[in-house]
């Protein structure tokens, strides 16, 4: 994954292919767009507490605002996905521009963390042939979500909590935005309950490898 993502051990790979109880444990990928923000570290704290990981779909030009947060996220095994340099709508850009903004974000992540970024989270969920072609050329995967919490709209911790819980199932990719305090409050509540229910919190890359 991006830098800190743990390599898959032979054991884990084997577990993924057999019916061991561990392999049966439901997994969920919580993804947080538009950060990093001052609220991000509260999520890192809880992921660290439960030994889980999230995927942080960062905006390139925000990385220098909170370099310690970004470095910590990677160090602790979370994944950084590229969510564009400046939240441009990529489907309005030509291949050269798209390549440039993806590369500049990836380069920024590499400079700070030494890690490779392999996941592209589209802005506005917008995907077209150009983006897919650029992603393929850069050997990156484009990943949207299966559940949109609409947290940006409700800006309400309980509503976000309910949306995460309603969408939670094995293999779900949940979209949240860690720029809102209410989102982080709601996500923290959901993570506590999902943890009790046996869920494993995995990065997008880990979900792809194992499901
Ligand atoms: Zn966004």
Description of the structure:
The protein is α/β, with parallel strands linked by helices and 211 residues long. 46% of the residues lie in helices and 14% in strands. Strands 1, 2, 3, 6, 7 and 8 form a 6-stranded parallel β-sheet that branches. A two-stranded parallel sheet has the order 4-5. Helix 3 runs parallel beside helix 9 and helix 8 crosses helix 9. It starts with 9 loop residues before the first helix and ends with a helix. Bound molecules: zinc ion (ZN).
Q: What's the N-to-C terminus distance?
A: 15 Å
Total strands = 8
Uncertain ranges? 1-21
Element string (H = helix, E = strand): HHEHEHEHEHEEHHEHEH
Give the overall average pLDDT: 91
Q: What ligands are attached or bound here?
A: zinc ion
Question: Which outline best applies?
Answer: globular
SSE inventory with pairings:
Elements (H helix, E strand, L loop, with lengths): L9 H8 L3 H4 L2 E7 L6 H11 L4 E4 L8 H9 L3 E4 L12 H19 L5 E2 L8 H9 L3 E2 L4 E2 L2 H4 L2 H11 L4 E6 L3 H16 L3 E2 L2 H7 L1
The chain binds zinc ion.
The site of zinc ion (ZN) has 5 residues, from loops.
Task: Characterize this entry briefly.
The protein is α/β, with parallel strands linked by helices. The chain has ten helices and eight strands. The protein has helices spanning 10-17, 21-24, 40-50, 67-75, 95-113, 129-137, 151-154, 157-167, 181-196, 204-210; strands at 27-33, 55-58, 79-82, 119-120, 141-142, 147-148, 172-177, 200-201.
